[in-house]
Design goal:
The protein is of the alpha/beta class. The chain contains 12 helices and 7 strands. The chain starts with a helix and ends with a strand. The relative contact order is 0.15.
């Protein structure tokens, strides 16, 4: 099951790689500013960008550290990251294909683990977090940023449904409580949490993943039929745009 899911994710994102490098949502944001501040002044450090996608974390971190390893399941995504890093003159970014749950590095190989908009794709969430902890030296730091699910089951069900219709590689957006518990079990001590809202334009959101028209219309139908509680929480607009909750979590390897 693990191998087949990993293969599915890699093949699903191969034709979408360039779109993620160019994505405005992925290439900007206060969370990226926070990540850059998080690693600033660490010239001797080695950082792991776990589930790097289009490489935007790597591009921000690279000027401040000795080396960034951009790690992802999808070879085509890594090829795009390597190309973009070269174009930006970031020679200290190297790429590595691997699953978050099974990383090919020794324990304590990194001073930072950074992961943004990746964990909701992991086949085994806690296994990925345990691997992230294994990568870090004792007392080293990690930062995880992702969209999170509201605690209420009604809102959670809506979010997971539209995410899966839009992207069949989606596994789960976890709640803040699920994140905190999983991090603690995986050997992390949380030091800071920043909650933000992420506004998504419907057409851009679905075109980036090449969502078939049938499923895009199904999402619009779910939104149209949603209760006022759902529509209000996600700030759903008439054109299908909506807002997601995000968390940026800073943690120490305990």
């Amino acid at each position: 099951m693990t191998t087949s899911q990993h293969d599915f994710v890699a093949s699903h994102y191969a034709p979408r790689a360039e779109a993620y490098v160019r994505s405005a949502v992925h290439s900007s944001g206060a969370d990226l500013d926070q990540i850059e501040d998080f690693v600033r002044g660490s010239a001797d450090a080695r950082a792991l960008d776990l589930g790097c996608g289009g490489g935007h974390v790597s591009y921000r971190a690279a000027p401040h550290v000795r080396e960034v390893v951009a790690c992802d399941l999808t070879p085509d995504m890594l090829a795009q990251v390597k190309k973009a890093a070269a174009e930006r003159g970031l020679a200290n970014i190297v790429t590595q294909q691997a699953a978050a749950e099974r990383l090919p590095f020794g324990a304590g190989s990194f001073d930072f683990v950074l992961s943004r908009y990746s964990a909701h794709h992991w086949n085994n969430f806690e296994a990925g977090l345990r691997e992230a902890r294994r990568m870090l030296k004792d007392g080293a730091r990690a930062l995880f940023a992702d969209c999170v699910s509201p605690a209420h089951p009604l809102l959670d069900t809506h979010l997971q449904a539209i995410e899966l219709l839009r992207d069949p590689s989606h596994v789960r957006n976890y709640s803040a409580a699920e994140w905190m518990a999983a991090l603690a079990r995986s050997g992390f001590s949380v030091t800071a949490i920043a909650a933000r809202k992420l506004r998504l334009e419907f057409t851009v959101w679905t075109e980036r993943t090449k969502t078939p028209e049938l499923y895009a219309n199904a999402i619009l139908s779910l939104q149209a039929q949603a209760s006022s509680a759902v529509r209000d929480h996600f700030a759903i607009s008439e054109d299908g745009g909506f807002s997601l909750d995000t968390l940026t979590i800073e943690a120490v390897a305990a």
